[in-house]
Amino acid sequence: MLQGAYREFHHRLQEQIEPRRIYTDPLSTLAYGTDASCYRLTPKIVVKTQSEAEVQAILALAAEFVLPVTFRAAGTSLSGQAVSDSILVVASYGWKGLEVLENGAAIRLQPGVVGAAANAALAPFGRKIGPDPATINSAMIGGIVNNNSSGMCCGTAQNSYQTLRAIRVVLADGSVLDTADAASVAAFRASHAGLLGQLAALAARVRDDAELAARIRRKYKMKNTTGYSLNALVDFTDPLDILTRLIVGSEGTLAFVSEVTYHTVVEHPHKASALVFYPTIKAACDAVQVLAQHKDVVAAAELLDRASLRSVENKAGVPALIKTLSEDAAAILIETRAADPAALAANTAAIAGFIGHIDTLTGVAFTDVVSEYTQLWNIRKGMFPSVGAMRAAETTVIIEDVAFPIEHLAEGTLALQALFKQFHYDEAIIFGHALEGNLHFVFTPNFSGAEEVARYEAFIEAVCRLVAVDYEGAVKAEHGTGRNMAPFVEMEWGPVAYRVMQEIKAIFDPQGILNPDVILTSDALLHVKDLKPIPVVDALVDKCIECGFCEVMCPSRAITLTPRQRIVANREMAALRSAGDAPDRLAELEALYQYAGDDTCTTCGLCETACPVGINTGKLTTQIRQGHQSDTGWAAANWLAGHYDSATRGARLGLTLLDATHTVAGDAATGAVMRGLRRVFGRRVPHWTPYFPRAAAKPRLGAGTAGSARKVVYLPSCLTRTFAPSGAMPDPRPLNEVVASVLGKAGYQLLYPAGLDNLCCGTPFKSKGALDAAAAKLAELKAALLTASDNGRWPVIVDNGVCTAAMLEGIQDARLRIVDVTTFIETEAAAHLHFTPLDEHVALHVVCSMKKLGQGATLNALARRCSSRVTEPAGITCCGFAGDKGFTYPELNASALTGLKEQVDGCCGGFSTSATCEIGLSEHAGIPYQHLMYLVDRATRRPG
To answer: What architecture is the 1-264+495-513 domain classified under in CATH?
Structure first.
């Protein structure tokens, strides 16, 4: 229950922002109290904003009540800058504006755009944004700008500070400045002359202090995100330029960034990499110092110590040599890029010459083969998750980043390794962006006891003294200061520079309400407070490092919880159950979790594809559902599994009655009736749209080309056998007839398993936790397919991508070759078909199960055989229909497909590989979606 000023703030805010986007419940506040750092703070109020006006309203009320405000985008920040125990403003799902400018020379972005999405939009122009953090597939522009993120190739020349073209911000007083708008700039110069005058005076004073100015210039020759961007005070004289650059890297402590325009950089199409092994760290660092003098040809040079190499030496594709290396050995992973093969060859030859005088263990050998250099970089990228996956229970994973002056890189690395030994962090590894003297180190402390916290405190103190004092480096090179290093900013910069930073904060935020304690703090022990607990929950998710990489893949991310948040909630509930001292809080969390964590989880498993430690949170949901099943529920599931043909007949009867009603009443009246029934009977009545399927007639099982030597076993899915296309669809034929048509044209005879009406892959049962029933249906299906395929002689073709994936996972029998029909057409049957691409613009949706199988490119290739233009909308992952959830929880489907309609504007139709997914896609795209085989049938004929 909110008290005092927070209660009044909440009451007043609901008058200006939809209450459904303002959260005070214990589950939501817990879920948003976690970012990728080792800290947890529980906000009192979480607000999901959608506009500048809403941010202005929040800031006005916060100023009135003097309440702290923290801004958050993706929450992938590693230093605790995106958590709050006050008011948390989320600027992600409502902030997706993206506009490519001047043929890719620039790009305008809102804070909720994922970095990878920006690069995808720029790819056709051969450009990208400058910052390239390792988190770019999940980090959002708001965090990238506010942390001045860099990465492997970005260095100090292409970060946000250097590539900023324009910025639009909301200041603490609610005023808006858009530096791309001359009128806005002029108005701001007039209204904020005092603020600009203070900045100009401060900058002049800093420039007049020769010692301080020289120190600032020296420290920004290397990567440095410790404190505010003091280089703005020496790089610029116009106070407006100073203001905009100070906001870069300010971590939400000076203003809210609502839009940024970047100058983009070239993305060279040709690349080559070399993994070079050295006998010692010293030798490797000597090579790095040479390479750092040739950044015109060296795009990246990653230093890998022996411990980091050991962390991946047993993984597939890793060179066997790594296991034989001595304890002193190290490696450098070098990349070069060029516009054409000749320039690339010149680069690789030059680099080999630059470092040829330094002894190596294996020589310098580059590869420009995509699969080979991708494997090399996967070795590097696999180090952090490897440590995370191997850590002990209840430990957390911390990845720190520091920067040494390049001339001290070898000494600094050896000194860091000595600190690991001194403080007994024996699992720690070092790797990093060595061209910039930037090292990351990963270790796994346990914060469950005071002694361990004290060890961590002493270790961090020692690291900061080593880096900042002994070598005059940066204790934060690219991850931002956050809460983590706020107590050490003065240690690094000294009292004079620190007072300058305090003045900057006071000029922008005189009340001190924007993200307090981040960057600047008076609490010397802030970095060891509010440390995140990691209680044991289940082996399925205990390795979660709460990084948030999964969130961009989750269909429920904008409506309820993400996989990370589901794990956070389950950890909290597990801790409460173990302690047994807060039964009311536990009961409340469990009740709230039912809808937010369970009912709206699709169990699609796409989170696993982005998770650095390979966690599929959907499996946890399935397990929870299994535990919730009652004896009655088990009995019903088992009865249904044993009488599946009866169930599908019942479904067809219901669909027949509904279709008859629709034929008489029409779209509007049918929709009104169904909505009314849902209001009365709840989710038991399905959500209806004009794309709702009709009942399938008894399937006509076409034989294809009878008597052909080419044979396949065709399994029409239970959805194909139950559903016929809606009358709103352009092709009314049942899918099985379309498949038979295509395969017949390709000269295949079709065989069918016996007892077809009762066969099922088990997915409807498994998704609801009825694992025994699911296993029984898979076993029954396997037996039928073995018989139909002559014990595996003929391939088994499946017409639903979800079913294909379930069968490949669940039927472990080398005799059976199970192939999705689309894959079969593209990889085999296409040789026996004549394709004539249609002059049509079509949309393609790859269902989540096919994405997990890695079949996206195959489906795209098949669609491009059939149509002159194919659009695969960006940012649309799982559609959220999840079998039947689109009927019962249509809000999940609607949320997951936000932005689809705009991206398929101009398409004449859409195609996918799952009947239920196609229902939801059709509703939210505004164009009909059917199975991709309908398009294939239209675009093919028999050869000759």
So the answer is: 2-Layer Sandwich (3.30)
